[in-house]
Every structure is written in structure tokens, then in C-alpha cells.
């Protein structure tokens, strides 16, 4: 890693103060091209990290300073264009709130008193505490919470140390229910990036899935084209989302009743024989039993549950069937809503199966990948105790670690005590529901170390904080996710870190060496590691550094083209009826349960994404904050009149357990049902060090004192909180 000279550091530091006035920074970015032409510009291909889509990008450095970032035209995810967050990602480099050096707590947990220390001191403390917990309780008593590709090397160190308690919020708080629902049906899941063939779909059904606000780049680009070429779009959402405004049919469903709608759709498709019979005869298992089970669920039955007229249900079912198999019922991504989410996702999987769209053009393609060998490390020690997140296999279909299960174990000490947490790139105070439980768990720890780029809420609870360089300043492991065309992509440093921040691979390697685990890092530096892997895949590291992306040969991705139609389910077929669910005491075909209506006079709290922000991680980025600096609460216009609120009035939300939010502005709108309110997740920061974000908008997580756990897989349904609205005084 090159280090900046002190002078250059000061220059960037000064630049960051200017940049903190986001407008001025934006103006600087828009300087005439003439000026750019006179400067020395260096272009470095890499890939984005503002969210987990990982779009290929090209960053430009002008006269030694980070100037702009654009899509890499060679990259199959970005097709040369980034989303607004990706374009504004360079603001993360100038972010004046960045952590600059390792910190050690000098007071009690939760109080912001820190001492800046060297990496040597900080990692010595971390290694000492890890060794102590290992000898007192065993290595399994140290857990890692991680999110994103950057956590790979940290995971490697933790496995070498001897723990399997490694968990990410992307399972129990995000796409776990979907992945389990699809795996129960097809033996495989929709993956990330999703295998959705929006590009070729003739009919697209979005249940939630607010594309256009959810800015996952490839999907949004393909969706915009689909709108342009007149694809038929059906949107199911209690809120008139951006996607809804493009729809032929918009179904303003009563929140939490989607399974009733899905059953009624399947009822129409089965009773009118609109399904793909040939496909089901060939690949399906248990169709007759399934057909019988969905028989009572007519559109008339679903109407009082969902609020959707029977004729609309019939018309949309026929619309889907008209375009099959190029009908894509989007599997969704953030699916932990009501606690019955794996079954709702399974119903979505089944509706796709009726359309014959899995493995078909315009439906869900089969992922293509390159063979990229893993680096040959020594084997990890076998932990003496199994992972603590799912004792007794309480959630029998959980196939990944349940983050909230590790939190439970930390609170209860069962099945064994968890005494240390390492937290890499996940702001647990925001990403796990019920922050009081997260704090209780933290208070039971002997040691908490957080690796972050800014002094986030979770960093505020740490004993040691380690500052990471941002994605534009480091190498990471290779991007190897399967996609439509197989490819690998490289993240590589564009500029130096402005202060004493270090990349994750260096932190992981140095810590391993201090723990006596140096044998797990036989490579000298990450370039040597990457070069080995790229060569082992039969590609050139030089080419990858130059182009950012190497494409593999195209492979068949549809059954009709020769992609293997294999299903890793017990029957080796698409399971319309699931014997394994039945044996485990669950419904073999999804059933509907009416959601709890909540206290009278309250609104169900719903939430989602804003195009300019990612979760709680972009609110100190001056460029993105300049575009959207706080969230608002969407309230049905008639309800707003009834309550006496106008657009822009500041209010506070009080949840069913008495928790009061930060102040938040009302967005009075016809675009939401009267029984719910909606806000964008990630605002309302409270950590004092996040100077650019503190006190701006309100936090949905703070209001989530309740959640409903999915009995199949342990996901935490988050749409189960209710609020009333109080004027801000
Ligand atoms: N800009 C931006 N884009 C992102 C992200 C980001 O942070 N910022 N994060 C990415 C990640 S990791 C994820 S998981 C995805 C999440 O994005 P999605 O997977 O699209 O999330 P959803 O929860 O499906 O969608 C939220 C929508 O569901 C609606 N909704 C709420 N309740 C119900 C209900 O009961 N029924 C129905 N049918 N709809 C309901 C809400 O009104 C809202 O419009 O976004 C990804 N894209
Ligand atoms: N209430 C509520 N809870 C949710 C959601 C919701 O919408 N509402 N969404 C759920 C979903 S879909 C998901 S995927 C999860 C997301 O959960 P998280 O991934 O935890 O999302 P963030 O809140 O953005 O936290 C990311 C943290 O990583 C830090 N960070 C950013 N870049 C880097 C880096 O390069 N290196 C390091 N070391 N740190 C970095 C940020 O500063 C921030 O503290 O949350 C889930 N939880
Ligand atoms: S979707 Fe946007 S934020 Fe996410 S990786 Fe791509 S450009 Fe970056
Ligand atoms: Mo997510």
C-alpha cells in the first residue's frame, strides 16, 4: 500500500473541508471539460462498493485527486453506467466524518471517549482479547458480524482462529426468506445479482420490489428498457411506488396479505388451465395435490383479505399467462416482512413455476460462472461446538447463519456464551431490529471490535475501532459472482488513503500473524494473492488490472438452449407439494394467515429505499446528502387532513411500545393507503461523530421494537410495528 506524503494528505484534507459543502463539490465536478483537457487524467478500472451490486466502474484521477467515477462499458452489470449512488460514491473519499486512525475506548461502553493509537497498539489489544476469550471460553465464543465482499479476509482469519459463528444481516434481515422459499421449490435460489431476465420479460410482476427506488443498477436499466418497449407491468404495493407509476396494473394491496393474492392468482391459473402443462409434466412434482389445495382460494375469497377486486385478480392472472414463459414474477430481495416470508417467497416461486419461467427466456436464467480456484490455504481447525445461532435446529430450513440468533446467544449465554464480537462493515444498531436487544447483547460482551470507515452507531459501542480505507483506496478479493455471462472483476486502489486507514486484507493478515496464525497467509501481499487466483483461472492479471473485467465464454443460460434442467430438491423436480416441509410440521403448500391489524388508530410502519442512499451508510457522503439530506414520512393525504398535518410539517412517530422517533417531515400524499405510513431506511443518525448526518430525519429501526420470526428459517419480519403521529413541539 502506498502511503501519502504528509503534504498531499493535508491537501486532500483541505479538499475535504471544501467538499463538505456538497454544492461546491458538485460544482467542482462540473468544471468545464476544457480545464480537464489541460490536466493529467489517470483512469483506473475498479468496482463500486456503495451497495452490494458491485458494478464495474472507471474512476478518474485528475492532477492526483479523485475526480469522477463512471460505469465501465466492459462490465456486464453496469453496461457503462452507474446509479446515482455509485456516481456520488467518490464523496465517500472526501467525507469529513471519516475515521482517521485506530481508536481505543478510554471510558465505559456507549460513551464516546477515545484515544487515537497506532495500528500496532490497536491490533495488539485485539489479539490479546481474542486469545483471552479463546482460553477462557473457546474460540467459538468469538463471533464475526460481517457484510459485503470486503469481509472475506476477516472471515478467513476468524475461521483460522477457530470460530464458525460468522454471520451477515443479508440472511435473516434481507434475502434469506426468499432464498429458502425458492430453494424449497427449485433446489436453488435467485442469487445476487438476481437471475431475473428483466431484459427479455414480456410481463413483469413486482410484489414490493420497488425498482427505481431500489436502485440495483442492472435491474433498473433493464426495467427502464422494458417500460420503453411496452412490456406489461403489474405492481403490487400498498404505496404507489416509482415502479407502480410505470404499471399497466397497479394493485394497492392491504399490507401483509400478499399470500392471499398469490393463492388467488394460482387458483385462477389452475382452474382456467392457464399454466404451462408441458413444463409441469416434465419438471413438476406434486402438482395434483397442489392444485387441490389451492382450489378454495378464489378471487372472491381473496377480495376481503387483500382489498383487490376479483376481476382485477382474474385479469392480472390472465395477463401473466398470456406472456408465459416470458413472465417474471420478481422474487424480491428484501423479503423479511411479516414472519411468514419463506412461505410467501415459496408462493412466488410456485407462481413462476406455473408460468414455466424458471430456466426460460424472460423468466429466471441459469447462472453462468468461471472456474476460479480458491487459494490453497491450510485447513481450518474444526470448532469444538457447532454454531450458536440456531440451537437444536429450531429453524430447520435456515441454510445460513442467523444474525439475530447470534445476538440471542449473546444475551442468553445459550447454547454457550458469546463473549467477543468483531463487526465488519455492518451497522448493527441499524440493521438488526430491536436496538435495545442489540445493546443488551453488547453489554454482555467482554470485547467488541468494529472495523468501519466512519464513526457509526455500532462503532460508538466498540472497545477498539479500526478505520478501513474506502473501496477506492484498496484491493479486495475478486468479484466472481455468477451472471448471465461469466466474468471476473477487480477492485483496485485508485487513490491513497488520506490518513492512517488500512484495507481489510492488511488488517486480517496482520491480526492473524499476531494470533500466531501466519501460516494462513502464505502470500506477501494481496497482489500476490490476486495474481495467483487470476492465473489459476487461466486469465491474465495484467489484463484484469488494465480492463477491470474479463469476460468468459458465453454459456447456455436457458433450458431451451441446453442449460441443465436439474433441481436439487428431494424429488429432483420442482416441488409444487413439499414433502420435506410437511415432514417438518409445516404447510406443504403455502397457507394464508391474516396479519395482526395493530392497535386501533395506528398505522403500519413500512419502509424502503431512496435512489440516492444506501441503508445507513451514505448519510455522511457530502455529495449524496446534497441530493437528499433527510427522509420524510409518507402519510395518506386524507389522513393528514384528518390529523391536521400539512405537507412539510415536522412530526414525531410513536410506536406501539411508546418509543418516540426523531423529528421527521410529513409527506402528505395520495400515493399511499390510509392504513400505513412509509419512510426510507437509514436516516435519523445519533452517533455524534457523524456530523453530516446527526439529527437528519428519523430511523425506522429505532421504531422496530418488535419483529416476527419466520418459523422455517429464523428471518425477522420487520413490517409488524405500528405508529401514531404526534406534532413536533
Ligand atoms: N437506492 C438503494 N437501492 C437499494 C438499496 C439501498 O440501500 N438503496 N439496498 C439494496 C438491498 S440490499 C435490498 S435488499 C433491496 C431492497 O429493495 P426491495 O427488495 O425492492 O424491497 P421491498 O421490501 O420488496 O420493497 C419495498 C416496497 O415494498 C412495499 N411494501 C411494504 N409492505 C408491503 C406488503 O405488505 N406487500 C407488498 N406487496 N408490498 C409492500 C413498500 O411500500 C415499498 O414500496 O434494495 C437494494 N437496492
Ligand atoms: N429497519 C431496517 N432494518 C434493515 C433494513 C431496513 O430497510 N430497515 N434493511 C435490511 C437489509 S435489506 C440489509 S441488506 C441490511 C443492511 O445492513 P448493513 O450492511 O449493516 O447496512 P448499513 O446500515 O449501511 O451499515 C453498513 C456499515 O458499513 C460501514 N461501511 C461502509 N463501507 C465500508 C467499508 O468499505 N469498510 C468498512 N469496514 N465499513 C464500511 C458503514 O459506515 C456502516 O456503518 O439491513 C437490514 N436491516
Ligand atoms: S447499484 Fe449503484 S451503488 Fe450499487 S454497486 Fe451499482 S453503481 Fe454502486
Ligand atoms: Mo438487503
List the helices and strands and how they pair.
Elements: H1 6-20, H2 22-29, H3 33-38, E1 41-47, E2 56-62, E3 65-71, H4 84-87, H5 91-94, E4 103-105, E5 114-116, H6 119-137, E6 142-146, H7 152-161, E7 166-167, H8 169-186, E8 203-207, H9 217-228, E9 232-236, E10 249-251, H10 258-271, H11 277-283, E11 284-285, H12 287-293, H13 299-306, H14 310-323, E12 327-329, H15 341-355, H16 403-412, E13 420-424, H17 428-431, H18 435-443, E14 447-452, E15 464-467, E16 487-489, H19 504-514, H20 526-536, H21 541-547, E17 549-551, E18 574-575, H22 579-583, E19 603-608, H23 622-627, E20 632-636, H24 637-643, E21 650-655, E22 664-669, E23 676-680, E24 708-709, E25 716-717, E26 722-727
Parallel strand pairs: 6-7, 6-13, 8-9, 8-12, 9-10, 11-18, 13-14, 14-15, 19-23, 20-22
Antiparallel strand pairs: 1-2, 2-3, 4-5, 4-15, 16-17, 19-26, 21-22, 21-26, 24-25
Helix pairs in contact: 6-19, 7-19, 8-15, 10-13, 10-14, 10-15, 13-14, 16-18
The structure holds ligand MGD (2 copies), iron/sulfur cluster and molybdenum atom.
Describe what this molecule looks like in 3D.
The chain folds into 3 domains: about 105-165 and about 385-480 and about 485-550, Rossmann fold; about 175-365 and about 560-585, Dimethylsulfoxide Reductase, domain 2, CATH 3.40.228.10; about 605-725, Barwin-like endoglucanases, CATH 2.40.40. About 55% of the residues are buried. Helices cover about 30% and strands about 15% of the residues. It has about 725 residues and is an alpha/beta fold. The protein has a 7-stranded mixed β-sheet with strand order 5-4-15-14-13-6-7, with helices on one face. Strands 20-22-21-26-19-23 form a 6-stranded mixed β-sheet. The chain is globular, with a radius of gyration of 25 Å. The protein binds ligand MGD (2 copies), iron/sulfur cluster and molybdenum atom (MO). Iron/sulfur cluster binds near residues 55, 82 and 83.
Amino acid at each position: 500500500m502506498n502511503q501519502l506524503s504528509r503534504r498531499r494528505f493535508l491537501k486532500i484534507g483541505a479538499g475535504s473541508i471544501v467538499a463538505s459543502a456538497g454544492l461546491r463539490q458538485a460544482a467542482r465536478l462540473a468544471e468545464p471539460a476544457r480545464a480537464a483537457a489541460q490536466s493529467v487524467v489517470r483512469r483506473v478500472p475498479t468496482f463500486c462498493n456503495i451497495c452490494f451490486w458491485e458494478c464495474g466502474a472507471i474512476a478518474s484521477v485528475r492532477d492526483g485527486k479523485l475526480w469522477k467515477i463512471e460505469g465501465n462499458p466492459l462490465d456486464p452489470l453496469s453496461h457503462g453506467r452507474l446509479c446515482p449512488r455509485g456516481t456520488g460514491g467518490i464523496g465517500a473519499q472526501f467525507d469529513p466524518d471519516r475515521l482517521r486512525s485506530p481508536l481505543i475506548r478510554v471510558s465505559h461502553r456507549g460513551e464516546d471517549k477515545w484515544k487515537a493509537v497506532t495500528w500496532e497498539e490497536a491490533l495488539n489489544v485485539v489479539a490479546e482479547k481474542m486469545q483471552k476469550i479463546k482460553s477462557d471460553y473457546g474460540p467459538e465464543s468469538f463471533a464475526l458480524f460481517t457484510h459485503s465482499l470486503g469481509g472475506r479476509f476477516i472471515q478467513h482469519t476468524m475461521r483460522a482462529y477457530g470460530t464458525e459463528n460468522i454471520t451477515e444481516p443479508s440472511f435473516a434481515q434481507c434475502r434469506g426468506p426468499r432464498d429458502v422459499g425458492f430453494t424449497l421449490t427449485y433446489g436453488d435460489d435467485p442469487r445476487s445479482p438476481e437471475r431475473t431476465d428483466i431484459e427479455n420479460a414480456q410481463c413483469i410482476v413486482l410484489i414490493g420490489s420497488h425498482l427505481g427506488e431500489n436502485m440495483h443498477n442492472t435491474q433498473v436499466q433493464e426495467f427502464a428498457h422494458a417500460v420503453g418497449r411496452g412490456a406489461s407491468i403489474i405492481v403490487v404495493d400498498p404505496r404507489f411506488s416509482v415502479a407502480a407509476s410505470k404499471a399497466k396494473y397497479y394493485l394497492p394491496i392491504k399490507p401483509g396479505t400478499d399470500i392471499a393474492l398469490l393463492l388467488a392468482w394460482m387458483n385462477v391459473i389452475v382452474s382456467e388451465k392457464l399454466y404451462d402443462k408441458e413444463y409441469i409434466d416434465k419438471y413438476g412434482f406434486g402438482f395434483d395435490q397442489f392444485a387441490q389445495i389451492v382450489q378454495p382460494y378464489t378471487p372472491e375469497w381473496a377480495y376481503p383479505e387483500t382489498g383487490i377486486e376479483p376481476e382485477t385478480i382474474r385479469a392480472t392472472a390472465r395477463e401473466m399467462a398470456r406472456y408465459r414463459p416470458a413472465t417474471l414474477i420478481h422474487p424480491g430481495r428484501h423479503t423479511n416482512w411479516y414472519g411468514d416470508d419463506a412461505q410467501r417467497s415459496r408462493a412466488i416461486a410456485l407462481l413462476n413455476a406455473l408460468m414455466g419461467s424458471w430456466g426460460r427466456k424472460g423468466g429466471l436464467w441459469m447462472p453462468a460462472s468461471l472456474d476460479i480456484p480458491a487459494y490453497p490455504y491450510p485447513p481450518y481447525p474444526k470448532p469444538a461446538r457447532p454454531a450458536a445461532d440456531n440451537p437444536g435446529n429450531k429453524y430447520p430450513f435456515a441454510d445460513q447463519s442467523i444474525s439475530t440468533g447470534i445476538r440471542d446467544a449473546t444475551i442468553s449465554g445459550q447454547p454457550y456464551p458469546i463473549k467477543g464480537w468483531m463487526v465488519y462493515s455492518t451497522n448493527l444498531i441499524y440493521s438488526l431490529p430491536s436496538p435495545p436487544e442489540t445493546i443488551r447483547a453488547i453489554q454482555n460482551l467482554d470485547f467488541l471490535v468494529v472495523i468501519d470507515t466512519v464513526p457509526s452507531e455500532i462503532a460508538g459501542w466498540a472497545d477498539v475501532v479500526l478505520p478501513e480505507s474506502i473501496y477506492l483506496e484498496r484491493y479486495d478479493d475478486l468479484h466472481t459472482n455468477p451472471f448471465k455471462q461469466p466474468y471476473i472483476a477487480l477492485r483496485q486502489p485508485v487513490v491513497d488513503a488520506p490518513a492512517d486507514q488500512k484495507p481489510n486484507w492488511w488488517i486480517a493478515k496482520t491480526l492473524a500473524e499476531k494470533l500466531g496464525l501466519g501460516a494462513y497467509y502464505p502470500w506477501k501481499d494481496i497482489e500476490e494473492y490476486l495474481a495467483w487466483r487470476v492465473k489459476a483461472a487461466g486469465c491474465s492479471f495484467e489484463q484484469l488490472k488494465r480492463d477491470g473485467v474479463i469476460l468468459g465464454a458465453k454459456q447456455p443460460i436457458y433450458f431451451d438452449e441446453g442449460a441443465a434442467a436439474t433441481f436439487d430438491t428431494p424429488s429432483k423436480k420442482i416441488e409444487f407439494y413439499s414433502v420435506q416441509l410437511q415432514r417438518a410440521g409445516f404447510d406443504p403448500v403455502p397457507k394464508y394467515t391474516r396479519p395482526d391489524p395493530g392497535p386501533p388508530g395506528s398505522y403500519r410502519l413500512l419502509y424502503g429505499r431512496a435512489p440516492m442512499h444506501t441503508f445507513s451508510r451514505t448519510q455522511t457522503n457530502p455529495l449524496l446528502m446534497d441530493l437528499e439530506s433527510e427522509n420524510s414520512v409518507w402519510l395518506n393525504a386524507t389522513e393528514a387532513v384528518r390529523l391536521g398535518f400539512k405537507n412539510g410539517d415536522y412530526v414525531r412517530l410513536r410506536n406501539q411500545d411508546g418509543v418516540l422517533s426523531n423529528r421527521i417531515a410529513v409527506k402528505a400524499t395520495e400515493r399511499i393507503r390510509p392504513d400505513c405510513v412509509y419512510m426510507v431506511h437509514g436516516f435519523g443518525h445519533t452517533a455524534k461523530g457523524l456530523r453530516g448526518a446527526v439529527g437528519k430525519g428519523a430511523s425506522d429501526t429505532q421504531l422496530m421494537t418488535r419483529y416476527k420470526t419466520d418459523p422455517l428459517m429464523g428471518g425477522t419480519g420487520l413490517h409488524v410495528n405500528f405508529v401514531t403521529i404526534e406534532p413536533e413541539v
